[in-house]
Design goal:
This protein has one domain. Helices cover 78% and strands 0% of the residues. The chain has two helices and no strands. The model has no long low-confidence stretch (mean pLDDT 88).
Length: 46
């Protein structure tokens, strides 16, 4: 078994990617301009 295929390494990489993505989403929600744009786009659907 190679080092990259070890279950702990794969799990750690998946968790790291998930944390980076969630942090990016959180940073977007702290920007009021992004929230207004998102709500405007959602409202345009109706």
């Amino acid at each position: 078994m190679t080092r990259l295929q070890h279950p702990r390494v794969v799990t750690a990489v998946v968790w790291a990617i998930a944390l980076v993505v969630l942090s990016g989403v959180f940073m977007l929600y702290t920007r009021p301009v992004f929230m207004v744009t998102l709500i405007d786009q959602l409202w345009a659907c109706f």
